[in-house]
Design a protein that fits this description.
The protein is α/β, with parallel strands linked by helices. Helix content is 40%, strand content 16%. It has a domain of 206 residues: 3-Layer(aba) Sandwich (Rossmann fold), CATH 3.40.50. Bound molecules: NADPH dihydro-nicotinamide-adenine-dinucleotide phosphate (NDP), dtdp-4-keto-L-rhamnose and magnesium ion.
Length: 300
């Protein structure tokens, strides 16, 4: 039997990391998802030791510090995970001669205008999280030219904490939820991102001349957080789950430590053209996640 090929997936307990582990990889591909205790991404010695003990054919890096508001005060932790760790992974993958596929965010943009942002639109993060993720992008691109940075946005899944699960929890004990209606973007299933990352990674492993650089991947269409909340509740109600009326409010009505972009829309034309990845509508992704959560909450 042929030996299997290993891929390192960081942040395996996160939303995207969990979906990458659950992904149906081709026979012969094995995913390694070490715990923090085995691989400390922010420690150069730990990263070097792990790579010398574990030969891999590619690295996918969804690990990140994702607490947007807390990052405003935990600047060191945000930059360690979001900028230093990608720099160390870029160095290690460059030395090993293998591709690095890194995950970034719409929060690198300041959210001017109302167009779908292309990959080369000017970046200007509004907060520490976005600034740390931008530093990570630059470290990846300069540290390993055989790399792809995939920016995504508004990630939803059955895993961990995310906006969808927060809304269902809030609806469990109140009839009405106030949600901002002046920040626009594209909700995205962590499962769909994992699929896109797998497609890119396998192609890069097979073809050293595969396209590199920055790509956007989000589900198709657009909404605002208030519209997303309404869709979550109407899907949930269909399954007999929690429901709340949504009161649309402005950003000014919902003060937070970190500023967020008013326009987070991302254009996906480039990933479709170069990698043949075509996102499904965001409502289909929401429906799948709400259904999966509602099946779980039904006692067997
Ligand atoms: N969530 C979102 O809405 C969006 C996310 N993104 C990006 O997508 C990627 C995936 O996000 P998502 O899956 O939601 O993230 P999660 O917050 O769900 O998971 C992040 C994972 O990274 C791990 N991690 C954090 N810091 C470190 C560290 N220093 N060393 C090792 N592991 C670490 C966490 O470990 P632990 O389990 O111990 O906490 C966790 O498993 C990230 O790069 C994020 O910036 C982009 C746009 C939107
Ligand atoms: C819980 C809640 C949030 N909101 C607002 C706050 C914010 O503007 C918006 C979304 O709330 P969140 O806390 O999910 O937002 P946030 O954590 O900023 O989500 C971001 O996470 C990072 C990691 C990313 O990379 C981004 O793409 C984006 O998904 O909704 C309300 O208006 N009402 C509410 O009851
Ligand atoms: Mg949040």
């Amino acid at each position: 039997m042929a030996e299997s090929i290993a891929i390192l997936v960081t942040g395996g307990a996160g939303q995207v990391g969990a979906e990458l582990q659950a992904h149906a990889w081709p026979a012969g591909v094995k995913v390694l998802a070490p715990a923090r205790s085995e691989l400390d991404l922010t420690d150069a010695a730990s990263v070097a030791a792990w790579f010398s003990a574990n030969p891999v054919a590619a690295v996918i890096n969804p690990a990140a510090y994702t607490a947007v508001d807390r990052a405003e005060t935990e600047v060191g932790a945000a930059f360690a995970a979001n900028a230093l760790a990608p720099a160390l992974l870029a160095e290690a993958t460059k030395a090993a001669g293998v591709p690095l596929v890194h995950v970034s965010t719409d929060y690198v943009f300041d959210g001017q205008g109302d167009e779908f942002n292309a990959e080369d639109a000017p970046v200007a993060p509004l907060g520490v999280y976005g600034a740390s993720k931008l530093a990570g992008e630059l470290a990846v691109r300069s540290g390993n030219p055989r790399s792809v940075v995939v920016r995504t946005a508004w990630v939803l899944s059955v895993h961990r904490a995310n906006f969808l699960k927060t809304m269902l929890r809030l609806a469990g004990d109140r009839d009405r939820v106030s949600v901002v209606a002046d920040q626009f973007g594209c909700p995205t299933s962590a499962r769909d991102i994992a699929q896109a990352l797998a497609t890119i990674t396998l192609r890069m492993m097979a073809d050293p001349t595969a396209p590199t650089g920055v790509y956007h991947f989000v589900n198709a269409g657009e909404t605002n957080w208030s519209g997303l909340a309404q869709e979550i509740f109407s899907q949930s109600a269909r399954h007999g789950g929690a429901f709340a009326e949504v009161t649309p409010i402005t950003t000014a009505d919902y003060p937070t430590p970190a500023r967020r972009p008013a326009n987070s829309r991302l254009s996906t034309a480039k990933i479709t053209a170069d990698y043949g990845v075509t996102p499904r509508p965001w409502r289909d992704a929401v429906a799948e996640i709400v259904e999966e959560l509602s099946n779980r909450s039904v006692a067997p």
